[in-house]
Every structure is written in C-alpha cells, then in structure tokens.
Amino acid sequence: MMTPIDFIILGVIIGSNNLAVALALGALGQAERRLRVMLVFGLFEFFVPLVGIWLGSATAEAIGLQTNVVGAVLLVGLGLSAVIVGLRDQKADEELARRVTEWRGLLFLAACLSVDNLAVGFGLGLGRANPLAVATAIAFFSVLFTWAGMRLGRDSRHGWERGAKIVAGALLVGLGLAGGAGWF
C-alpha cells in the first residue's frame, strides 16, 4: 500500500519530465500557450497511468508471478532510458517549439511524455496501488511543474532541461529499486 509520501515522491519524479519540456518551451517563447500546454499535459498525465494500472492489474492476474520484481524492472528500465535521453545533446529552435505547441503537435508531445506514465502505471498496477490516487498525484505535479517550467523557461533555460531529465531518470531507477526491495 502506498503512503501519502509515496504519492508525493511519485508525482514529483514523473512530473519532472514535464518540467524539463516546459522549461524548453518557455525558453523558446511559448509561455503564452502555457494554459493549453497545462490542459493537455494534465489530461494525458491523469488518464494514461490509469490505463497502465489497469493493464498491470490484468497482467498480474494473468501471470501470477513475483509482480513486484516485474514492476521494479520496468521502473528501473524506464529510469535508465530517461538518463540516457538526458545525456544526449539535443537542440531545438523556436519554429519547432511553435509547431509543438499547436494542438496537433501538443497532443503528440503529451502522448510521448505519457509513455513513461503508462509504464509506471503498469508497474504499479502489478501491486496494489490506488489508481485514482496515483493518477491524481501524477497529474497534479505534472501540471504544477508545467506551469513553473514555462514561467522559469521564459526567463532563462540555463541547461535545466538536460539536468531535469537525468535527475528524473535517476529518481525512477531509485523508485524501481525501492519497489523491488519491497519498501512500498
């Protein structure tokens, strides 16, 4: 069973991906579209973990294996991939940012950002996490971090995007290891 602190930690870890993207979008002149970005990110960040939890629960019933180990491996793998992505050098320009924050681009971006939420939801669904509490925590922190990132990014980026991805990945690895060890 997850404690309130577990939900806060999970929300902060998952929401940090949105912070990284929002910092970049804000730095590239898209801060005026922050309400649109927050709406779309919030909806995806709420519903995608629910789908993941449902899939994880169904899988746990079907396979009946040591599900905490499977969930931990998924979270560690996801965290390592986030660290690798954060270490790569990526350049973006204002035209790309403008296209990404149009409705079609924003839906695609939110879907891409939510893939990790599907995996996290799946891993948590293998255990006994409260689906609505998980989805609410993730969506709350994602929207909060999107708002903060777009405002901060508007002023200055200072390489935070890369660091935020690396930190988020490392935290996911830690969350996976803690779950595998049975700490929650």
List its traits.
single chain, 184 residues, mainly alpha, 8 helices, 0% strand
Give an account of the 3D structure.
By secondary structure, this protein is mainly α. 82% of the residues lie in helices and 0% in strands. It is built from eight helices and no strands. Helix 1 packs antiparallel against helix 8, helix 2 packs parallel to helix 5 and helix 2 runs parallel beside helix 6. The radius of gyration is 16 Å and the shape is globular. The termini are close together. The relative contact order is 0.28.
The topology string of helices and strands comes to HHHHHHHH
User: Level of helix content?
Assistant: over 70%
- The outline comes out as globular
Low-confidence stretches: none
- Class from helix and strand fractions: mainly alpha
Oligomer: single chain
Number of distinct beta strands: 0
